[in-house]
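Quick start: what a row looks like.
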Amino acid sequence: MPSAHLNAALLDTPREMSQEKRELLRPVLAEWAKGNLWVGAELMAPDITFRAASPANFVAQGLEETARQVLDLLAHWSDYRIEAEELEDLGEDSVLVVGRQHGTGKLSGAEVDYPIFIVWKFRANEVVGVYFEGTKDAALEAAGLSG
């Protein structure tokens, strides 16, 4: 008769691991929809790669540089939030978030509402990559998951 430990290991399939990653992201994304973009930092690995496409247009390596770049970006907005509409399984270590980004420019007062595609790459339960792009194909390519 197999042990309980072995049964648990057999249940830890890529699909279940991916589901676990989506569940880790759900509370983070719920807060991002409210504009609380600092939620989720506790999931990020010290060696994270964080890429934001144009117009932000930066790639940050590590938590400190990521925090600095995100602070600089958010300084230009009086209101900015990301609303997730769909979470797509990309395999055991990656999740694609499809949604919309909304914001109001601090100086211009201009409101924006654009689609956003974010690939989250995991190592165990740590986020090692976050890739923000304007299209799904660009997000997959930025994360090294295309073709």
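That is the whole record. Strands lie at 44-52, 58-61, 77-89, 94-105, 111-123, 126-133. The first helix runs from residue 4 to 11.
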